[in-house]
Amino acid sequence: MRKPVIDAVVGLVAMLVLSSLAIAQTAQSQSTQGNEARSPWKYYPRDIATGDGGPAPKRDLSGTWAGPGSSPAVPRGAAAERPSLTPQAQQLMNERKPIGKFGPAGANDPTARYCDPFGFPQNVYNEGRALSVATMPDRVVILFQYMDVWREIWTDGRALPAKVGGSDKDSLDPTYMGYSVGHWEDDYNFVVDTTGLDERTWLTNAGYPHSVNARVQERFTRVDHNTMKLSLTIEDPTMYAKPFSLGTYNYKWLSNQKFNEWLCLPSEQIKYLTEQGEPAGSFPDAPPARYGGGR
Amino acid sequence: MKMKTKVPTFVALIAGLLMMGPPLLAHHGDASYSPTPLELKGCVITEYTWMNPHSLIKFDYKTQEGVVQHWIMEIGSPPSMALLGWSRTTLKPGDVITAYVLQSKTGRFVGRTNKVILADGTMLGDRDDATPSRYGGDQKK
């Protein structure tokens, strides 16, 4: 009777000793990882500032932010709404072949085929893993990691252009980023209105269209020093029966304020499509599947 | 009386669903590939290209009959794969790996990577469910 008790005590002691060794090794490993030299020139997507970092500065979004998909530390945002399409929008949708259904071989998405820029607003919520905000006296500039593109949001009190894309001499040309004006609704909410978007750009990678007269409104909220949120809505009576939300996206302060260059190069796109995408084939009638690809 | 109010609501709900378009944000689909991975041992890397939109791994695989097959398989984009431990220098020509590949339904030697095991035993995958989607928020169902 005594032997099983002794065996149990010996086993318990051995387990405790091994556990403490394992804990010590883990702690040492974590400590070593934490002490690794960090280059100020390198992008560390997982190195997000912890905590709130203190109160939000007033009327300031400046800095470099980690966005959706950049690391597990950036929480998922709120979902976009499903829009109600007008007949004109439905006709365009019938012509579009998004990569999600047709794959790289069958898609006619100009970004998926040719590395054409997403344009605004898709560049906010597609590949929007990092961005910087810079504040100038008369505008706020947003610098996007993906494709090294930027947009200007004018804060000098000007109105949005009345005519874009028309045949009049005084009508402005549509652009991939549109024309944007912004104002501080209060010390922590920056509201931006944009119009004049080039109709060649897709609203989403599912192929939703927009007209040149679409109005997109963004609300940037500086929650605290380390947290920013962005909500978008679109109003476009030509394409949609009513305004709808394009979702809410979360951003966290990137610790060393450095992101890397990340381009879509047409030469690499051609290599990918020629060697991989097109030989793999297009199966639009197959059930949707996703086996890999990270986030 | 209550039924009278519920039926129009139900009809309106169905009508609303029928008016809806496809999902607002769709992922890059993998419908071109078989869901069941092939295990290919002793694959010799011939080219590794760390690039957009998806990095590519080329390798030679010798069958039991001695026939050499020239394969190419994709992984995700560099920022996605970096979160899973991949880098520009993970592979080089001459490296020997075990490849788990989801072959194209066309039957060609083209596939999506399921995972690879390097010569030192390191396993690298091609899927990240820990990181919330780069699309920020999926669409409301």
Description:
The complex is a heterodimer of chains A (295) and B (141). By secondary structure, chain A is an alpha+beta fold. Chain A contains 6 helices and 9 strands. In chain A, strand 7 and strand 8 form a beta hairpin. About 9% of the residues of chain A have low confidence. Chain B is an alpha+beta fold and 141 residues long. In chain B, strands 1-2-3-5-4 form a 5-stranded mixed beta barrel. The N terminus of chain B is likely disordered. Classes of the chains: A alpha+beta (295), B alpha+beta (141). The interface between A and B is large, with 73 and 61 residues.
Determine the mean pLDDT of chain A.
Answer: 89
Treating each run of at least 4 consecutive H or I residues as one helix, how many helices of chain B? 2
Estimated radius of gyration of chain A: 25 Å
Compute the separation of the termini of chain B in Å: 30 Å
Percentage of residues in DSSP E strands of chain B:
25-35%
Largest sheet features of chain A: 9 strands, mixed, barrel
Return the CATH architecture of the domain at 38-125 in chain B.
Answer: Beta Barrel
How much helicity do the residues of chain A have?
Answer: 25-40%
Quickly name the level 1 CATH class of the domain at 38-125 in chain B. Mainly Beta
Query: Based on helices, strands and strand pairing, what is the structural class of chain B?
Result: alpha+beta
Largest sheet of chain B: 5 strands, mixed, barrel
**How large is the share of residues in beta strands of chain A?**
15-25%
Rg of chain B, alpha carbons: 22 Å
Total strand segments of chain A: 9
Q: Strand tally of chain B, please? A: 6
Number of folding domains of chain A?
2
